[in-house]
Specification:
By secondary structure, the chain is an alpha+beta fold. The chain has 2 domains: about 5-50, no CATH class; about 55-185, Hotdog Thioesterase (Thiol Ester Dehydrase, Chain A, Roll), CATH 3.10.129.10. It has helices at about 5-10, 55-65, 70, 105-120, and strands spanning about 15, 20, 35-40, 45-50, 75-80, 85-90, 125-135, 145-155, 160-170, 175-185. Strands 5-6-8-9-10-7 form a 6-stranded antiparallel sheet. Strands 1-2 form a two-stranded antiparallel ribbon. Strand 3 and strand 4 form a beta hairpin. The chain is globular and about 45 Å long. The model is unreliable at about 1-15 and about 20-30 (pLDDT under 50).
């Protein structure tokens, strides 16, 4: 695109073993996809949010009531141009017998905001459904803390999407990193 720096469009260059620069993004840890870039009415380029549906945190949380995300106390903190930030308390609902955050609760948080984000990028006549989720748990979170999750897209395709969620402890340390793959489908019936 004319007038745009290559650094706005691609992640930072990654040196290869031979010393030359490889401009393809490394799959893990992945750099976030930049928001779409479009020309505004005055002919200048600007970033646009990736969301195609209304994304209001309070409305999203209202839909959580009476479902697993609501029962787990998941709260949406922020919907940015290309990310969703959420939080979840760590209490008896989320802890394993050793008094730390259960890995399955981390996956529930990651899949909740990843699925939500995936659906927000689609037109009303399309839906995203989970295909695969994985999680690496890298540090324990004791009961009584609140974890914060940041979800960003790695791939926004026509038929599949991949979302990465980083879950952090109250002190900022990474507790879990999860990747969700969704399939884009047309709703049945």
């Amino acid at each position: 695109m004319p007038g745009l720096s290559r650094s706005l469009l691609l992640p930072h260059p990654i040196p290869s073993r031979r010393g030359n620069v490889n401009h393809r993004p490394h799959p893990w840890p992945a750099m976030p996809i930049r928001a779409r870039i479009a020309r505004d009415g005055r002919g200048t380029w600007r970033t646009m949010a990736i969301w195609r549906r209304k994304a209001v945190a309070a409305d999203i949380e209202a839909r959580f009531a009476g479902s697993l995300p609501g029962l787990f106390g998941i709260r949406i903190l922020e919907v940015g141009e290309d990310f969703i930030r959420a939080e979840m308390p760590v209490d008896e609902r989320h802890a394993q017998p050793y008094g730390i955050l259960h890995g399955g609760a981390s996956v529930v948080l990651a899949e909740t905001i990843g699925s939500l984000a995936s659906n927000l990028t689609l037109e009303e006549n399309r839906r995203a459904v989970g295909l695969e989720v994985n999680a690496n748990h890298v540090s324990a979170v004791p009961k009584g803390e609140v974890v914060t999750a940041l979800c960003r897209p790695l791939h926004l395709g026509r038929t599949t999407q991949v979302w990465q969620t980083a879950i952090r402890r109250a002190d900022g340390r990474l507790a879990c990193v999860s990747r969700l793959t969704t399939a884009v489908v047309e709703p049945r019936g």
